[in-house]
Amino acid sequence: MTNSFKDKVIFIGSALSWFAVIMQFILMMQNRVESLTETTIRFFSFFTIVTNSLVALYFSVLWYKKPNSLLTRFEQPGFLTATTLYIATVGAVYQLVLRGIWEPTGMQRIVDELLHSVIPVYVIVFWIAYENKKAVAWSLIPSWLLYPLGYLIFILFRGHLSGFYPYPFVNVTKLGLEKVLVNSGVLVLAFLVLAIVIVGIGKLFKAK
């Protein structure tokens, strides 16, 4: 695949991701019942939003191409794999756990599908096509877990202060701390297993 084709793929990924994130923010603001500040904090309390924002930033930096520390980091083998791990988890958790608990309509449904279905698949395909899988080391996996662990600590701490939990399976008020800690442990384990699977699949691609 030519560089010009790859550039188009990167641009489309950037445009789709930014559109979905920004439109979701607009929709959330239109339906807010809390203050502007509180609604904004809650918006960025969703793993879906933070991760899709990471995807949008990733594609944007690659498309811009100007040498900087972000571009250097994003082009290192493993960063795309980690990003794919995170967005794939967004898609998997939504399809398996969250899809059945609400039925969005209109623009909300379009944005919902972009965030949880289209963009995860898009990134996975991009990873298959462009990641330097041979150079992705198993030793990177522990560092990839810092992001979801940090996220869990943040939402549990803020939920304790504000009473707002972005997802039902981490709602301490309804489930209790012990159950939430178990759920959190399962999620971290799922991240670990999926990371091993993704790197392993990458090694199979290398062998072809």
What does this structure look like?
This protein has about 210 residues and is mainly alpha-helical. The protein has one domain (about 5-205). The protein is built from 10 helices and no strands. It has helices at about 5-30, 35-45, 45-65, 70-75, 80-100, 105-130, 140-145, 145-160, 170-175, 175-205. It is globular and about 50 Å long. The two termini are about 20 Å apart. The mean pLDDT is about 95.
TL;DR of this structure?
The chain is mainly α. The chain is built from ten helices and no strands. It has one domain (3-207).
Task: Label this structure with key terms.
10 helices; 208 residues; globular; mainly alpha
How are the SSEs placed, and which strands pair?
Layout: H1 3-30, H2 36-43, H3 47-64, H4 69-74, H5 79-98, H6 106-130, H7 141-144, H8 146-162, H9 172-175, H10 177-207
Helix pairs in contact: 1-3, 1-6, 3-5, 3-6, 5-6, 5-10
